[in-house]
Amino acid sequence: MSNSMKIRRTAIAVAAAALLPFTLAACSDSGDTKAAPSAAAGDEGKTGASTPMADATAADEPFGPACASVPKEGPGSFEGMAKDPVATAASNNPALSTLVAAVEQAGLVDTLNNAKDITVFAPTNDAFAKIPKADLDKVLADKAALTNILTYHVVGQKLTPEQLENGSFETLQKGTVTTAGSGESYKVNGTSAVVCGNVKTANANVYIVDTVLMPK
Prior knowledge:
Layout: H1 3-47, H2 52-59, H3 78-81, H4 86-91, H5 97-106, H6 109-114, E1 118-123, H7 125-129, H8 133-140, H9 143-151, E2 154-155, E3 166-170, E4 176-182, E5 185-188, E6 192-200, E7 204-209
Parallel strand pairs: 1-7
Antiparallel strand pairs: 1-2, 3-4, 4-5, 5-6, 6-7
Helix pairs in contact: 5-9
């Protein structure tokens, strides 16, 4: 073998030896990169698992038989109502049109929309229909009497279903409403049943009831 060929083979061997550590390092880095998505996949699996926070969110949903009639989409849906203050939110729910008309007649739209952290017991159209028409027309024509009745349906704090289990609360009218029940069954003043409860608006919790509350 000539000296030139020996020198050339020696140079190739040296170069290969010099590159070997870098090749091994590159393989090691490649292995680490593949391991990372595997760990992320494990985290994704944990995210889908039930957690106390997820359970609490589910328990915080609206409840009651009348909730089924609430629109699934749009401003009158639960999601839509949660974005608007309470009087505006109620105006988008067809089942509360009589209440909304009464609130407008009494000039309470801005009062309710600008209030912070309140609870509204909202009578349905059927609740108002229980009142003899002559009596209802008389109340609607008397702003002071109408205001007295409507503000009796408003409590100055956001009430949770748990607080309704055995409660007594002062209203904006300065009277008192009492609540009792458990689970998804509650009554106000012993006679007015909550038919769709725990409805959220931007500034209030709403409990839709089947009977108009009358202050003493």
